[in-house]
């Protein structure tokens, strides 16, 4: 992984390929490259720096051509060095780019070595390039179709061959790939965003599809090599430049965009109905007896938060599982459960695989909470809720998380109405709270100067502990994740009541303890937990609601939240944790928007 762009045209396509990669930079990557066909075969440029460096290389070497493939790579097999950067060549005749992981690459590599192929990279991708080359008998489309039958794992590939100057072949299994339809030219990409401005007509390839792009058109066959007609859709993918404005980083900008993103995501009107989740949702909601939430990373924490709402508001049993674990254990399927998958991109490989596994077990009721309406996840589920976070550039998710929480809260209320646990007066109150969220968030964002002062102390630390209780425990988990993602400080979170069951052994004056302290039913219990930390010399940093009566004193630092917000309090309390992580990372001088080793869209298992 991480990003693919390809094109067949009668003009120099290199600027289009480079621009496509630039639009995919937000996903995170370690290297990048581009290859075009010339009369002498494929020529390429590769870089372990940024796309801007690749652009400079292509200009300096006058790299040009009408058929090409390009890639940004997030390293899986092999270090992020030039030899491992895509496009990968085979015999200087074929160039290939690849997202995903080939699980059986080792036996394939040994087989290909036996046929005389030399390997110059550490990648699983080189196996695919040589395999296609070994099967080539004058028909590149046929060679790719035969090759993918031998691949285990997930992949999206784009291939070009010197004997086919106006042809790019693509294939997908478990990783996204879209075809862009042009006039006398056609395109391929892992994300429609990469082709914004070039076309608005897209074909979203299905699992097992192989496609051939020529100047004249596009041919698609399914996994049985049968010609199929895939519907083309008009998608106005926004491709304009995203400006930082007065902000230092996109992450900071996106933190401050949350009031707007939430306002856009909160449903209009005075009713939180099942219809917000798609046609037939009311009937499904009336049939189900439980929920199974599947997600990864930040989205998993939004699911953990939602469990509290779903069980307290809708009174419906809810199970939350890490997607990458769910599909590999023996679970007991319940056909009456609603399977909810959560993802910012809608292309998260582990979550997609978990969804398909659930469907294979007989789960027919499925719902996606997603920020991309055209994603594979939305297309695979029968119901969906589209969050309106807008484009999120920073790898560490912020506004995507809070808009997910909005969607999941609406789900809890809509289910409550169907199940008779939410009456009209309660619904009206929930609507008022949702409408007021943007203003409440703006008041929280005004705390930034106080949080900056804390971050200067955190920057010198190497470990931190985060505590929360009830629905704010997942918020503590998210705060710890944000700190470790972008500042590289080791951080972990616990339910505050678990302190004495192990974590208290770690507490010293060298490890700050961050505590989320809303004025809810658990606040008195939480105060006792704080005293346990102080008795061991721990330094407390508390985000407390105004009426919790937790005051600053020696070893206890308090920032007061503007107001207590009831059930929606988690949405407010996560924002200062985002700011704390951001400013600590700034103080440590890390690459905030592109933290090391991470990618924005995780399309491999």
What is the number of helical segments per DSSP (H or I, 4+ residues)? 18
Query: How much is the average pLDDT?
Result: 90
The helix fraction, in percent, is 25-40%
Shape: globular
Segments where pLDDT lies below 50 for 5+ residues? none
Description of the structure:
This protein is α/β, with parallel strands linked by helices and 605 residues long. It is 35% helix and 23% strand. It is built from 18 helices and 24 strands. An 8-stranded antiparallel beta sheet has the order 3-2-4-1-10-9-11-14, with helices on one face. Helix 16 (473-487) links the parallel strand 20 (463-468) and strand 21. Helix 4 (125-135) packs across helix 5. The longest helix has 22 residues, at 424-445. The termini are close together.
What attributes characterize this protein structure?
alpha/beta; 18 helices; 24 strands
Topology:
Blueprint: E1 2-8, H1 14-23, E2 31-38, E3 41-47, H2 51-60, E4 67-73, E5 88-90, E6 94-102, H3 105-114, H4 125-135, H5 140-148, E7 153-161, E8 168-173, E9 178-181, E10 186-189, E11 201-204, E12 210-213, E13 218-221, E14 232-234, H6 250-256, H7 258-265, H8 281-287, E15 290-295, H9 297-313, E16 318-322, H10 323-326, E17 337-343, H11 349-360, E18 366-370, H12 376-380, E19 383-386, H13 399-419, H14 424-445, H15 448-458, E20 463-468, H16 473-487, E21 490-495, E22 512-517, H17 523-535, E23 539-545, E24 556-561, H18 569-588
Parallel strand pairs: 15-16, 15-17, 17-18, 18-19, 20-21, 20-22, 22-23, 23-24
Antiparallel strand pairs: 1-4, 1-10, 2-3, 2-4, 5-6, 6-7, 7-8, 8-12, 9-10, 9-11, 11-14, 12-13
